[in-house]
Amino acid sequence: MQTLHQSAVEPEEPGVSNLEVRLGREKKARLAAETLVEKKSEEIYEAGKELEDLLSGAVKMLTDVLAIARPELFQKAAKIQRWARQIAPKLKVERPWELDLAAMLYPLGAISLPDDLAMKYVLCEPMDAEEKREVDECSQTAYELISNMPRMQGVAEAVLYSRKGYDGSGHPQNGIQGDKIPQNARILKVLIDLADRSMGSGATRSDGFMAMASRKQEYDLDILKVAYIALLEGESQDEDKQTSLTLSPAMLKAGDILLKDVVDKNKGLLLAAGSELSDLSIKRLQAMVIERRVKDKFSVQRR
Questions:
Q1: Which of 10, 94, 150, 203: CA 20 to 30 A from 247?
Q2: Cα separation of 303 and 130, whole Å?
Q3: In the CATH hierarchy, which fold is given to the domain comprising 243-303?
C-alpha cells in the first residue's frame, strides 16, 4: 500500500530530474502570475482612463459654466493660465497640471456674486469692506466645488490660497504664511494680481509689476522675479509679433486681444480691454451686434 507521502508525489517522467520538475512548476507559476498581473493592470488602466475621462468632462463643464456666466473672468483666467504655463518650467513646479487647472478654475466662486459686484471685481474698482469680504470668500466657494472632484485636492488648495499673501495677509485668515502656502497658490497670487493691475486700455505688464512692487511683502520674491523676467520679455516679443486691426465680428478670431473696452449703449462694460477673445465670446459679440447693443467694429491685436 502506498503511503500518503508517496501518493502526493507526482510521478517523474523518465530521464527528468527532481530539479527539472521543480523548475517546470516554478515557470508555470510565474507565467500564471504574469498573466494575472497583466490582466489586473489592464483593468486598472481602463478604470484610470474612465476616471480621467470623467474628470476631464467635469472640468470642461465647470469652465463652460464660467465662460457663460462670467465671460470677462473666464478670459482673464485664460490669460493667467498662459502665463502659468510660461513660468512653471522655470520654477520646477512638481505638478504643473494642477497649476494649469487651478489657473483656469480660480474665478469659479465669482459665479455666486451679484452682477454689479462681479463687474467691480473684474475692473478692480474700489470696494467697501463687505464687498471685499464677499469677493474674498469666492475662493472658499471655488474650493468647495473643486475639492469634491477626484484627484483635485491639490487644485482646490491652490485655488483656496490664491489670494493669500506671502506675509499671511488675505483670505483665508488662518495663520498660514510663507512657504507653508502651496507653491501653486503662491504662483497664482503673483499672476492674478499682475492681471488685475495691468488691465484696461493702455495698461501694460510693466505697470502691473510697478504697482506690485509697493506691496512686495505679499509675494514670494523668487516667484515674482521669475514672472518679472519671463513675462516682461514675453510682452515685448508679443508686441513685435502683433498687428492692430479694426474688424467686424465675422472677421474676429479666437486669440485676438481687445484693444478697447466693449461697452453697451448705457456705457456698461461687456468686455474689458486686454481680454483675449474665445469662440464663445466672439459669438456673444456677434449676437450683440445683431441686437444693436454694441458697435459693429472692434479694435484688436492679432499675432
A1: 203
A2: 41
A3: Molybdopterin biosynthesis moea protein, domain 2 (3.90.105)
Which stretches in the chain have pLDDT values below 50?
1-10, 239-240
C-alpha pair distances (Å), 81 with each of 85, 117, 199, 209, 250: 6, 24, 16, 18, 27
Residues 6+ apart with CB under 8 A from 23: none
Among the listed residues 300, 214, 216, the one whose alpha carbon sits nearest the alpha carbon of residue 253: 300
Give the global pTM.
Answer: 0.69
Determine the Cα–Cα distance for residues 87 and 60; give it in Å rounded to an integer.
24
Which residues face 89 on adjacent strands? none
Q: Give the count of beta carbons closer than 10 Å to the beta carbon of residue 193.
A: 22
Alpha helix positions (H), the chain: 4-8, 18-69, 71-91, 96-105, 115-123, 129-136, 138-147, 153-160, 183-197, 205-213, 221-241, 279-290
Q: How far apart are CA 223 and CA 83, in angstroms?
A: 12
Domain with CATH 1.10.3210.10 in the chain: 56-241
pLDDT tens figures, 163-222: 999 999 988 988 899 999 999 999 999 999 998 888 765 677 888 899 899 999 999 999
CA distance 74 to 143: 17
Which residue, 105, 56, 111, 110, is CA-closest to 80? Answer: 105
CATH of domain 56-241: 1.10.3210.10
Return the CA Rg of the chain.
28
pLDDT tens per residue across span 211-233: 899 999 999 999 999 999 998 87
Range(s) within the chain of domains with CATH label 3.90.105? 243-303
